């Protein structure tokens, strides 16, 4: 009889299938149907047990999977076990959703908000964190753009607090350079306006096992309760900030992230990588007579982190990029992009 005592977790059907000696004896357990989390694994185990004449034993009796009646009973027990797990999971999920709809479900808060001793959401008592959040909302209110807010912090050499969710400093306050993505995330978060929300995102599992997170529109959120706790701004200010973000962030959404082909005569749009910093370069056009001339600009560092622009490359005409591939200072990037030095487009 095989032993799985050395495993530091609950043994599964695959642990038994991967053991070379299990088939020579038998499978013993208090409730053997618990070895499989779904019917597919369990049925596979039964077929192999029947092939090698391996007995299955639990607290109810001894079964021979090579006999039809025993195999039928084991499959029925597996189905009942799977239904039980489904019911338990559904009840747990239902309890979580009901608690979220009442605004009572506790989950991780963003930086600047904490739970007090009575489990109420309050502003962070750390005055430096509190002042940094206030400064961010004030800077955005005066500048009207996330990039200008980052530039405001960079010009004053001011760091911004973050609380890592993993790593050696998990849960601690770490001070870093402010980036555009963090500014947009804070401005879009209703918790800073004193609103309780749940279900803003949905995570789906793809065929390859990876996960994808989808942001949902407000009408599809599970819960939204305005004025549920203290906040840094009012709900009206939050709505106004969302409208200003929508009007200024159209050029930096998903359509620009992966460099897809766009309109215009430039041959290498979305493909050029800066040879100085490694960021993707964007295309701007200027008109000379009836001809549109592209300019390749490295501005992502300036936009995201308020750094100086690396370079601006201006070919003499639209025919020059067709000759770039034959130049020695241009190489193929491992991800299929064209890279080169600062003078790759010089005439």
Descriptive notes:
32% of the residues lie in helices and 18% in strands. It has 9 helices and 17 strands. It has helices at residues 13-17, 39-51, 68-101, 127-143, 146-155, 180-188, 235-248, 254-257, 300-305, and strands spanning 26-28, 55-58, 61-63, 113-115, 121-123, 160-162, 174-176, 196-198, 201-205, 211-215, 223-225, 272-273, 282-288, 291-297, 312-313, 330-332, 338-340. Strands 1-2-3 form a 3-stranded mixed β-sheet, with helices on one face. β1 (26-28), α2 and β2 form a beta-alpha-beta unit.
Looking at this protein, list some descriptive labels.
347 residues; alpha+beta; three-stranded mixed sheet; 17 strands; 32% helix; 18% strand; disordered N terminus
Structure in a nutshell:
32% of the residues lie in helices and 18% in strands.
**CATH architectural category of the largest domain:** Alpha-Beta Complex
* Ends distance: 78 Å
CATH class of the largest domain: Alpha Beta
Query: Helix and strand succession?
Result: HEHEEHEEHHEEHEEEEHHEEEHEEE
Largest sheet: 3 strands, mixed
CATH topology value of the largest domain: Hect, E3 ligase catalytic domain fold
The tally of structural domains comes to 3
